[in-house]
Design goal:
Elements: E1 2-8, E2 11-16, E3 27-35, H1 38-46, E4 60-68, E5 80-83, H2 93-96, E6 120-123, H3 125-130, E7 133-135, H4 142-145, H5 148-161, E8 168-172, H6 176-187, E9 192-196, H7 200-209, E10 213-215, H8 222-229, E11 235-240, H9 245-254, E12 255-263, H10 278-282, E13 286-289, H11 295-306, E14 316-320, H12 325-334, E15 339-342
Parallel strand pairs: 8-9, 8-11, 9-10, 11-12, 12-13, 14-15
Antiparallel strand pairs: 1-2, 3-4, 3-6, 3-15, 4-5, 5-7
């Protein structure tokens, strides 16, 4: 089979490998679609303590079950599935509370185990037992199904911050995640969604996703624009999907008194980010963060995709064959579009 291995920082290598054998507790999956996540880009550029080289990374996976171990009873060859990212141990306090995405061991597909930038991937025992493997509808394409993991994280953020119908919501960043938030918020009854985005291309994407107002922070005063659009009150909810310390600080300014702030995107640990905690106190803000998603919200994300509750195809702007994975990463890094999806299955027609 063909696989793309990360052999060092900013080093992707197309390799020829044997199709991996599985044991009695594992599943062999043929990968049909794998999305490029922002975390993949961080690992590509900076490495990660959880990853040993060479490693096949990638966790936004959709594909077909081709072989199951004799102890696997929930799945069979031919099943069309999409995956969550986390490999819960099943034993720690968080796993026992059905919060496997906070598992103490912190294992994930594409980190401690090979991920999806390959024609085949092995789903290890703990993932089969405790992870999220969801069957998809016959009419759902693998490309759309690969969005289930990132969209589950969006649903987790909305659940945690507690947005309500009729609210005014500010979303910082209009990449794939930001546009998913915008579209989901409008679907869930937000009265007004305001996007904050520098890139002209992504400003347009924000409008297409349903944003009622788009602010260019490089040319406009975001705080004043939000105040003007909210009778000087500020936003009911602010969601920061951009990995920006400036955006995190400003989110506290644009939230109304008793408002809510969701910090979705992390920033570099070395980044100094002095926060004015008076906003927490005197504006009585609710400030939360989210990471990953529990299995029940991954199931919910698959339902949204299967039932077409949003135009999920609009979030995928570029597709690539496996041998063009490097190009997929560079396109994602350039922020030319939204989601880049690699389709390893398309290599089948080209292999000799």
């Amino acid at each position: 089979m063909q696989a793309i291995a990360l052999t060092g920082k900013q080093q992707l290598e197309l390799q020829k490998r044997d199709v991996p054998a599985i044991n009695q507790d594992e599943i062999l999956l043929k990968v049909h679609a794998i999305g490029v996540c922002g975390s993949d880009l961080r690992v590509y550029n900076h490495g990660d303590d959880r990853i040993d080289y060479p490693r096949v990374i990638g966790h936004e996976i959709a594909g077909e079950v081709v072989e199951t171990g004799e102890r696997v009873t929930r799945f069979k060859p031919g099943d069309r599935v999409t995956l969550g990212a986390h490999i819960p141990c099943g034993e720690c306090i968080y796993c026992q509370q059905n919060e496997g995405h906070h598992c103490i061991k912190g294992h994930s597909m594409g980190y401690q185990a090979d991920g999806g930038f390959a024609e085949y991937v092995v789903l290890p025992k703990k993932f089969v037992q405790n992870g999220s493997i969801q069957k998809i509808a016959d009419a759902t394409s693998y490309e759309l199904a690969s969005l289930s993991e990132p969209f589950s994280c969006v649903l987790s953020g909305l659940d945690e911050v507690g947005t309500k119908p009729g609210e005014t919501v500010v979303v910082y960043g209009a990449g794939a995640i930001g546009c998913m938030y915008i579209a989901a918020l409008k679907r869930m009854g937000a009265a007004k969604v305001i996007a904050v985005q520098r890139s002209k291309t992504r400003q347009q994407k924000a409008k297409e996703a349903g944003a009622d107002l788009v602010i260019d922070p490089s040319a406009e005063n975001t705080t004043e624009k939000v105040k003007a659009a909210t009778d000087r009150l500020g936003a009911d909810t602010v969601i920061v999907t951009a990995p920006s310390a400036d955006a995190q600080r400003e989110s506290l300014e644009v939230a109304r008194t008793t408002g809510k702030v969701l910090l979705f995107a992390g920033i570099k640990p070395v980044t100094e980010n002095p926060i004015n905690t008076n906003h927490f106190i005197y504006k009585q803000l609710k400030v939360v963060g989210t990471h990953g998603a529990p299995r029940y919200l991954h199931m919910e994300a698959v339902k949204w995709i299967d039932e077409g509750l949003l135009d999920f195809s609009s979030f995928i702007t570029h597709t690539f064959t496996l041998e063009d994975t490097e190009k997929a990463f560079q396109t994602a890094l350039s922020k030319e579009g939204l989601k880049c999806v690699v389709k390893p299955g398309e290599r089948d027609r080209k292999l000799v």
